[in-house]
Amino acid sequence: MGILDFLKRRPEPTATVARERLRIIVAQERSSRGAPDYLPMMRNELLEVIKKYVHVDIEAININLERDSGHEILELSVTLPDGKAKSDATDTTAAN
Amino acid sequence: MTAEIIVVTSGKGGVGKTTTSASLATGLAMAGKKVAVIDFDVGLRNLDLIMGCERRVVYDFVNVVHGEATLKQSLIKDKRYENLYVLAASQTRDKDALTQEGVEKVLDGLSEEGFDYIICDSPAGIEKGAHLAMYFADKAVVVVNPEVSSVRDSDRILGLLASKTRRAERGEGQVTQHLLLTRYNPARVAIGEMLSVTDVEDILGIKVVGVIPESENVLTASNNGIPVIVDTASPAGQAYSDTVARILGEERPLRFIDVPKKGFLQRVFGG
Question: What predicted TM-score, i.e. pTM, was given to this entire model?
Answer without folding.
Answer: 0.82
